[in-house]
Amino acid sequence: EPEVTQTPSHQVTQMGQEVILRCVPISNHLYFYWYRQILGQKVEFLVSFYNNEISEKSEIFDDQFSVERPDGSNFTLKIRSTKLEDSAMYFCASSADLAGGETQYFGPGTRLLVL
Amino acid sequence: QQQVKQSPQSLIVQKGGISIINCAYENTAFDYFPWYQQFPGKGPALLIAIRPDVSEKKEGRFTISFNKSAKQFSLHIMDSQPGDSATYFCAASNPNTGFQKLVFGTGTRLLVSP
Q: Tell me: the pLDDT tens digits for B31-50?
């Protein structure tokens, strides 16, 4: 069964450093998302991406964050200058379309720890 | 308006019992209501979903009940098993505006005792 994959599974970084989280969505999917989950809390929407541009972003997704689809398979989330409060589990998700395929498939996540 | 409220925060059920988790929403534009199951260290996985044009949807041991007038929906797990022990999130979205941005509830940690 096709699945969303994410790398790395864990990332430890120093405050102020840049991190790039990588995702490979399901191959025929067109809509891509990033969510985050601070430990013990709910999953929060960060950004959605379609047709090589951001379609919607939350208040959390400030200028420190960016997303990119550098090739036909990868989808990345970059945090330019990490803060302690960026420590969380980051999930990538993808969906096939809007009309009949609302199901978002989530990857296993990248646990980011900012020290 | 964008919130989805979920209760209880945690739930302990005996094996074979019925687990019930409730959610409520305010935004009447929400048009799609999925439930996700999450095991420790894993991403959320879609369990079952409903649209407001039906009041109930059943898939195996899992049933969603939907009350449009009350703006509430619930997940019922019949014959609960220890393997059902996980965190359950309700969610909502408006496919007409938000490119399927999912608004999640706060989660319910279910423990099914043997």
A: 889 999 999 888 899 999 99
